[in-house]
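Sequence, please.
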């Protein structure tokens, strides 16, 4: 499945261009990077039992989730809930769990055979989240590490 290629920078993302035979066109990719980024770094609706960051009352969420039958297939992750958390082992484990939850749809819909997520602290206020995907029908694997700063809800490709 082809998708438009997003080029990520410190200020966000933009559509990437390709230059073939002197002509500019929109670049495409297999869509996995875009799917993973949207899944991880869009704000998923907080569950009813989730403790919101101090001073927040908004449970966030993607607007179109309200239109889905049965409240299933929520878009995004709950990583944003870690905004004011200390970098304790249990918080790093929650980051991993939130990432797995956000990416599970890739397995459920057959886009990948399996997925693994690793989370680690690499500095004050800075996590690394590594996503490993096994592609269907022996097509190989895919891996990307993201640098994530919960305080600002910003990420970069590590």
């Amino acid at each position: 499945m082809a998708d438009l290629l997003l080029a990520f920078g410190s200020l966000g993302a933009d559509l990437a261009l390709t230059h073939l035979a002197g002509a500019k066109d929109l670049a495409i990719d297999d869509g996995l990077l875009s799917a993973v980024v949207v899944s991880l770094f869009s704000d998923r609706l907080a569950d009813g039992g989730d403790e919101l960051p101090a001073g927040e009352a908004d449970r966030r969420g993607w607007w179109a989730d309200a239109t889905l039958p049965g409240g299933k297939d929520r878009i995004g992750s709950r990583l944003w809930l870690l905004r004011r958390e200390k970098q304790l082992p249990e918080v790093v484990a929650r980051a991993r769990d939130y990432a797995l939850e956000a990416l599970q749809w890739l397995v459920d819909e057959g886009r990948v055979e399996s997925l693994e997520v690793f989370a680690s602290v690499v500095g004050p206020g800075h996590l690394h989240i590594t996503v490993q995907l096994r592609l269907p029908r022996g097509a190989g694997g895919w891996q990307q590490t993201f640098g994530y700063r919960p305080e600002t809800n910003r990420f970069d490709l590590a």
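DSSP finds two helices and ten strands in the chain.
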